[in-house]
Amino acid sequence: MRKSIATVSVSGTLVEKLEAIAAAGFDGVEIFENDLLACPLPPEEIRARAADLGLGIDLYQPFRDFEGAPAELLAGNLRRAEHKFLLMERLGADLLLLCSNVSPAAVPDDDVAAGHLRLLAERAAEHGIRVAYEALAWGRHVNEYLHAWRLVRLADHPGLGVCLDSFHILSRGSDPIGIEAIPGEKIFFLQLADAPRLAMDVLPWSRHYRCFPGQGTFDLAGLLAGVRRAGYAGPLSLEVFNDVFRQAAAERTALDGMRSLIALEREVAGAAHPALPAGFAFAELAGPAGLGGLPAALGFTRTGTHPGKPVELWEQGGARLLVNATGAEPALVAVGLDSPDPAGAARHAESLLSPILPRARTPDEAELNAVAAPDGTEIFFCDDGWLADFTPSRPYAEQPGHITGIDHVALTQPRHHFDEAALFYRSVLGLRPQQSLEVPDPYGLLRSKAMSSPGGEVRVVVNVAQVGADHLPWQHVALACDDVVAVARRLRKEHPGLLLPIPGNYYDDLDARWEVDPELRGLGVLYDRDERGGEFLHLYTVTAGRVFFELVQRIGGYQGYGAGNAAVRLAAQHAGPR
């Protein structure tokens, strides 16, 4: 279907917005009136610019507070409308969005409102313009989409239809099933926006927290499927009011919006991800040679070296680390995912506007494809062929140890990339949201969203830390263990400064809530339990550069991440080693 986006959804001047929207591959735009009013170019030039960029002007919006106004305001309202119609002719727009009246002076009379709607449609038709009537969720008397449809049907004019907005429908909890009762030809326009579920008034919720499809909690696939069954064949258009999007680069935001529409269409069509990741192939850390002995301290064995790059392979159980001796301080730079079809996974990523990164390789090296996650981490799609690139340091035999694999990785995003990251991992990698939370940090707030593959083989935690410009964006690799207590005993004995100190007050509270092994206190092991009785034991290393390790043990089907302990961990990390 044709894809459009409202200019209010991206940052910049109107011309900059149009250029970014066109570069992202959109077919059309909704011109938001404020953007036009602030633009020094006349409407005719904006029309020409859009045409040169290959963009149609699908809608001009908004026109407000018209229907149901007191009789003494009608003449003034019609005068306003005539001016807008003349402007739209100059702009080359033939569809006007009319929002339901929010004025306290509006009359609660459907017959009056319908009469006004018909009159407006008649005047618009004289200019070759149609009117799409939208029920705002906070409209004075019309705030439900089916009420708007009743008025359109009562007005009975061919140039009058409804505009359906997913936010206004779903934020009120309205059942979208009623959309199928509206003839497709009377649905003049469809606006799509997702949003997180928030307990707040709909007006500030709408004005500040909308996001692209797949970044929130609304069932947009179900709504779009119903709109299609009704026979709607017009554009899919994004209308997103978001404080972060207003500050982010327009090009990146527009591209993310296009990715969201592609993914939404595929979801409605029931298209499955062609190559869901089956596990972690490796985590690659860059930094000074050997990372200060950290892999060896954790019990990993160096099993290979790359003949042409300063990269070592370290293994323990099913966990593999690549240690890249570049960079001034340790950082997690890449993650490899085991894929049943690496080439198919790469094609899927490219179709969702995540291009394959250029990579220097010799003819003898495995052809590994990678894309960049929003924070810059490289995501590789792998089979086992990449292991042949490493010259064995010694024949690898399973060494005694308790680390069994990589449980999850946690990546801290720039604030304005948090929603983008959620959509990337959901659409490109096929991960699904598990839990979202906000954790108090001694110097701010940590927002976190956990995502995983359907079977939990791959887990990624996306964080954004709002703790000031000087704070390093921490990353961490969580290693799965079969006995965290045994690991903690060894590390306390052999590397006593490696583990993060945990305050005694934490264990006092833990004792009050559950009866746990008192040895956890001396070892610095944290504990959590879920409502089904599943248990979680975990501990942390101190931070080296931007990176730290977590060692985790899941018992009894526990699926969480010890979220209740996150604030304690953050405070301990800020305090540093003691």
TrEMBL record:
Its cofactor is a divalent metal cation. Transmembrane segments: none annotated. Its EC number is 4.2.1.118. Pathway: Aromatic compound metabolism; 3,4-dihydroxybenzoate biosynthesis. It catalyses: 3-dehydroshikimate = 3,4-dihydroxybenzoate + H2O. It comes from the Bacteria. Pfam families: AP_endonuc_2 (PF01261), Glyoxalase (PF00903). GO terms for molecular function: isomerase activity. Mg(2+) binds at residues 408, 476, 550. A divalent metal cation binds at residues 134, 165, 191, 239. Keywords: Isomerase, Lyase, Metal-binding. Residues 405-542 form the VOC domain. InterPro entries: DSD (IPR043700), Glyas_Bleomycin-R_OHBP_Dase (IPR029068), Glyas_Fos-R_dOase_dom (IPR004360), IolE/XylAMocC-like (IPR050312), VOC_core (IPR037523), Xyl_isomerase-like_sf (IPR036237), Xyl_isomerase-like_TIM-brl (IPR013022). Catalyzes the conversion of 3-dehydroshikimate to protocatechuate (3,4-dihydroxybenzoate), a common intermediate of quinate and shikimate degradation pathways. Belongs to the bacterial two-domain DSD family. This is 3-dehydroshikimate dehydratase. It comes from Nonomuraea maheshkhaliensis. The lineage of its organism: Bacteria, Bacillati, Actinomycetota, Actinomycetes, Streptosporangiales.
